[in-house]
Amino acid sequence: MLTLVADNSWNAGIVLSEFAAKWPDLAGARGRATRDGAAIGEGFGRDILGHPFNSVAWLATQLHSRGAGLKAGQVVMTGSVMKTVFPDTAASYRFELEGIGSVEVQVM
Fold first, then answer.
1. How many domains does the chain have?
2. pTM for this prediction
């Protein structure tokens, strides 16, 4: 199980947006996922180690202990606000994170 997390083998990709210089309260931001408009999962930024940036701080500390570090422009995935949901039917899937935005995909 730990290798699945470390290798991020459950993730088929990520969605990136334009850089944001100002962030909303990420700890309190609620993320919601739907399938054809019906809720399939939700959670808050605080569900990721208390705050999404805590996982970035942990990563930076681990890299530093090995003589490395994060570099400008690198993308770091901080974790998920909800359990993994695998699309199992043709449907429209949507995820929205309050104060950030939303993304939608049509699975055929």
1. 1
2. 0.82
